[in-house]
Amino acid sequence: SQQGEEDPQALSIQEGENATMNCSYKTSINNLQWYRQNSGRGLVHLILIRSNEREKHSGRLRVTLDTSKKSSSLLITASRAADTASYFCATDTGNQFYFGTGTSLTVIP
Amino acid sequence: NAGVMQNPRHLVRRRGQEARLRCSPMKGHSHVYWYRQLPEEGLKFMVYLQKENIIDESGMPKERFSAEFPKEGPSILRIQQVVRGDSAAYFCASSQDGRYQPQHFGDGTRLSIL
Description:
The complex is a heterodimer of chains A (109) and B (114).
Chain A: E1 5-7, E2 10-14, E3 19-24, E4 31-37, E5 43-50, E6 55-58, E7 61-66, E8 71-76, E9 85-92, E10 97-99, E11 103-108
Parallel strand pairs in A: 2-11
Antiparallel strand pairs in A: 1-3, 3-8, 4-5, 4-9, 6-7, 7-8, 9-10, 9-11
Chain B: E1 5-7, E2 10-13, E3 19-24, E4 31-37, E5 43-50, E6 53-56, E7 65-68, E8 75-79, E9 88-95, E10 104-105, E11 109-113
Protein backbone atom coordinates (compact mmCIF):
# COMPACT_ATOMS: atom_id res chain seq x y z
CA SER A 1 0.00 0.00 0.00
CA GLN A 2 1.15 3.53 -0.70
CA GLN A 3 -0.43 4.77 2.50
CA GLY A 4 1.94 6.95 4.43
CA GLU A 5 2.88 5.99 7.92
CA GLU A 6 3.48 8.61 10.54
CA ASP A 7 5.92 8.14 13.32
CA PRO A 8 5.49 8.29 16.25
CA GLN A 9 1.86 7.23 16.62
CA ALA A 10 1.56 9.41 19.71
CA LEU A 11 3.69 12.22 21.10
CA SER A 12 3.35 14.11 24.37
CA ILE A 13 5.43 17.23 25.07
CA GLN A 14 5.51 20.26 27.34
CA GLU A 15 4.30 23.62 26.08
CA GLY A 16 7.17 25.53 24.53
CA GLU A 17 9.02 22.44 23.32
CA ASN A 18 9.37 21.50 19.67
CA ALA A 19 7.41 18.61 18.18
CA THR A 20 8.69 16.53 15.26
CA MET A 21 6.57 14.07 13.31
CA ASN A 22 7.73 11.90 10.45
CA CYS A 23 5.96 10.44 7.46
CA SER A 24 7.25 7.64 5.26
CA TYR A 25 5.76 6.48 1.98
CA LYS A 26 6.47 3.85 -0.64
CA THR A 27 6.23 5.14 -4.21
CA SER A 28 7.20 8.35 -6.00
CA ILE A 29 5.00 11.36 -5.42
CA ASN A 30 4.07 14.69 -7.01
CA ASN A 31 3.53 16.41 -3.69
CA LEU A 32 3.04 15.73 -0.03
CA GLN A 33 0.63 17.58 2.22
CA TRP A 34 0.26 17.85 5.98
CA TYR A 35 -3.12 18.20 7.66
CA ARG A 36 -4.25 18.66 11.22
CA GLN A 37 -7.39 17.27 12.83
CA ASN A 38 -8.82 18.39 16.11
CA SER A 39 -10.96 15.88 17.96
CA GLY A 40 -14.39 15.58 16.39
CA ARG A 41 -13.60 17.97 13.55
CA GLY A 42 -12.59 17.79 9.92
CA LEU A 43 -9.04 18.07 8.65
CA VAL A 44 -7.37 21.41 8.13
CA HIS A 45 -4.72 21.80 5.44
CA LEU A 46 -1.40 23.03 6.85
CA ILE A 47 1.20 22.94 4.13
CA LEU A 48 1.95 21.42 0.71
CA ILE A 49 5.47 20.58 -0.42
CA ARG A 50 6.20 19.60 -4.01
CA SER A 51 8.52 16.78 -4.97
CA ASN A 52 11.17 19.21 -6.22
CA GLU A 53 11.20 21.13 -2.94
CA ARG A 54 13.26 20.17 0.08
CA GLU A 55 11.99 22.48 2.78
CA LYS A 56 9.06 24.77 3.38
CA HIS A 57 8.05 27.07 6.22
CA SER A 58 4.74 28.45 7.39
CA GLY A 59 4.72 30.33 10.68
CA ARG A 60 5.85 27.89 13.38
CA LEU A 61 5.71 24.97 10.96
CA ARG A 62 8.67 23.60 9.06
CA VAL A 63 8.31 20.74 6.62
CA THR A 64 11.14 18.84 4.98
CA LEU A 65 10.97 16.32 2.17
CA ASP A 66 13.60 13.75 1.28
CA THR A 67 12.47 11.96 -1.87
CA SER A 68 15.51 9.66 -1.84
CA LYS A 69 14.41 8.30 1.53
CA LYS A 70 10.72 8.69 0.72
CA SER A 71 10.12 10.56 3.93
CA SER A 72 8.93 13.89 5.22
CA SER A 73 9.00 15.56 8.59
CA LEU A 74 6.80 18.18 10.20
CA LEU A 75 8.36 20.33 12.90
CA ILE A 76 6.21 22.52 15.13
CA THR A 77 8.35 24.98 17.06
CA ALA A 78 7.48 26.54 20.41
CA SER A 79 4.42 24.35 20.79
CA ARG A 80 1.23 25.56 22.44
CA ALA A 81 -1.59 23.69 24.14
CA ALA A 82 -3.77 24.63 21.16
CA ASP A 83 -1.49 22.53 18.92
CA THR A 84 -2.93 19.41 20.53
CA ALA A 85 -4.43 17.46 17.61
CA SER A 86 -3.77 14.60 15.23
CA TYR A 87 -1.48 15.31 12.30
CA PHE A 88 -1.68 13.46 8.99
CA CYS A 89 0.48 13.41 5.92
CA ALA A 90 -1.11 12.85 2.52
CA THR A 91 0.71 11.82 -0.65
CA ASP A 92 -0.23 12.56 -4.24
CA THR A 93 1.17 9.91 -6.59
CA GLY A 94 -0.45 11.43 -9.68
CA ASN A 95 -3.37 9.08 -9.79
CA GLN A 96 -3.97 8.33 -6.13
CA PHE A 97 -4.16 10.35 -2.94
CA TYR A 98 -3.41 8.61 0.36
CA PHE A 99 -3.62 9.75 3.95
CA GLY A 100 -1.30 8.31 6.55
CA THR A 101 -2.33 6.85 9.86
CA GLY A 102 -1.57 10.00 11.84
CA THR A 103 0.40 11.19 14.85
CA SER A 104 -1.56 12.17 17.93
CA LEU A 105 0.15 15.17 19.53
CA THR A 106 -0.59 16.26 23.10
CA VAL A 107 0.91 19.52 24.33
CA ILE A 108 0.81 19.80 28.09
CA PRO A 109 0.34 23.35 29.44
CA ASN B 1 -20.06 30.29 6.96
CA ALA B 2 -18.35 29.75 3.64
CA GLY B 3 -16.78 26.42 4.59
CA VAL B 4 -17.69 22.89 3.59
CA MET B 5 -21.02 22.00 5.17
CA GLN B 6 -21.99 18.45 5.97
CA ASN B 7 -25.27 17.26 7.35
CA PRO B 8 -26.41 15.65 9.40
CA ARG B 9 -23.55 15.73 11.93
CA HIS B 10 -24.81 12.54 13.50
CA LEU B 11 -26.96 9.87 11.89
CA VAL B 12 -28.31 6.72 13.50
CA ARG B 13 -29.71 3.94 11.36
CA ARG B 14 -30.84 0.38 11.97
CA ARG B 15 -29.36 -2.45 9.98
CA GLY B 16 -30.97 -2.66 6.56
CA GLN B 17 -31.97 1.00 6.36
CA GLU B 18 -30.57 3.59 3.99
CA ALA B 19 -28.21 6.39 4.98
CA ARG B 20 -27.94 9.62 2.97
CA LEU B 21 -25.10 11.97 3.76
CA ARG B 22 -25.02 15.46 2.28
CA CYS B 23 -22.13 17.77 1.51
CA SER B 24 -22.17 21.33 0.23
CA PRO B 25 -18.71 22.34 -0.99
CA MET B 26 -17.12 25.70 -0.45
CA LYS B 27 -18.41 28.41 -2.74
CA GLY B 28 -16.63 28.26 -6.07
CA HIS B 29 -15.35 24.70 -5.56
CA SER B 30 -16.33 22.15 -8.16
CA HIS B 31 -14.27 19.18 -6.90
CA VAL B 32 -15.68 17.03 -4.10
CA TYR B 33 -14.10 14.09 -2.26
CA TRP B 34 -15.57 11.64 0.22
CA TYR B 35 -13.53 9.83 2.86
CA ARG B 36 -14.27 7.36 5.61
CA GLN B 37 -12.52 7.35 8.97
CA LEU B 38 -12.65 4.64 11.58
CA PRO B 39 -11.74 5.47 15.21
CA GLU B 40 -8.01 6.04 15.73
CA GLU B 41 -7.32 5.60 12.01
CA GLY B 42 -6.50 7.80 9.06
CA LEU B 43 -8.84 8.71 6.27
CA LYS B 44 -9.63 6.24 3.53
CA PHE B 45 -10.43 7.73 0.13
CA MET B 46 -13.79 6.68 -1.27
CA VAL B 47 -14.75 8.78 -4.28
CA TYR B 48 -13.85 11.93 -6.18
CA LEU B 49 -16.49 13.85 -8.12
CA GLN B 50 -16.78 16.94 -10.25
CA LYS B 51 -20.11 18.48 -11.11
CA GLU B 52 -22.31 15.69 -12.51
CA ASN B 53 -19.34 13.36 -13.00
CA ILE B 54 -17.67 10.63 -10.99
CA ILE B 55 -13.95 10.95 -11.65
CA ASP B 56 -12.57 8.23 -9.40
CA GLU B 57 -14.57 5.77 -7.33
CA SER B 58 -11.76 3.31 -6.72
CA GLY B 59 -12.23 3.52 -2.94
CA MET B 60 -15.94 2.86 -2.96
CA PRO B 61 -17.26 -0.59 -2.04
CA LYS B 62 -18.75 -2.17 -5.14
CA GLU B 63 -22.13 -2.76 -3.56
CA ARG B 64 -24.54 -0.63 -1.55
CA PHE B 65 -22.52 2.60 -1.84
CA SER B 66 -23.13 5.34 -4.39
CA ALA B 67 -22.30 9.01 -4.73
CA GLU B 68 -23.50 11.88 -6.84
CA PHE B 69 -22.78 15.57 -7.29
CA PRO B 70 -25.64 17.04 -9.31
CA LYS B 71 -25.55 20.27 -11.25
CA GLU B 72 -27.66 21.89 -8.56
CA GLY B 73 -27.54 21.02 -4.89
CA PRO B 74 -25.19 19.19 -2.57
CA SER B 75 -23.18 16.06 -3.15
CA ILE B 76 -24.83 12.97 -1.72
CA LEU B 77 -23.20 9.80 -0.41
CA ARG B 78 -25.78 7.08 -0.22
CA ILE B 79 -25.41 3.79 1.63
CA GLN B 80 -28.13 1.24 1.09
CA GLN B 81 -28.98 -1.64 3.44
CA VAL B 82 -26.52 -0.48 6.06
CA VAL B 83 -24.60 -2.98 8.17
CA ARG B 84 -22.77 -2.58 11.48
CA GLY B 85 -19.45 -2.29 9.66
CA ASP B 86 -20.62 0.92 7.99
CA SER B 87 -20.37 2.72 11.33
CA ALA B 88 -17.72 5.40 10.87
CA ALA B 89 -17.17 9.10 10.39
CA TYR B 90 -17.64 10.18 6.79
CA PHE B 91 -15.86 13.32 5.70
CA CYS B 92 -16.39 15.42 2.63
CA ALA B 93 -13.76 17.76 1.22
CA SER B 94 -13.72 20.18 -1.68
CA SER B 95 -11.11 21.94 -3.74
CA GLN B 96 -11.20 24.76 -6.24
CA ASP B 97 -8.65 23.42 -8.67
CA GLY B 98 -7.80 19.97 -9.82
CA ARG B 99 -7.31 16.91 -7.80
CA TYR B 100 -4.79 16.78 -4.98
CA GLN B 101 -4.69 20.50 -4.45
CA PRO B 102 -5.25 21.53 -0.83
CA GLN B 103 -8.62 20.25 0.25
CA HIS B 104 -11.06 21.93 2.59
CA PHE B 105 -12.89 19.56 4.88
CA GLY B 106 -16.28 19.54 6.51
CA ASP B 107 -16.69 18.40 10.09
CA GLY B 108 -18.02 15.03 9.04
CA THR B 109 -21.10 12.90 9.57
CA ARG B 110 -20.87 10.30 12.31
CA LEU B 111 -22.89 7.29 11.22
CA SER B 112 -23.93 4.77 13.85
CA ILE B 113 -25.65 1.53 12.93
CA LEU B 114 -27.78 -0.14 15.58
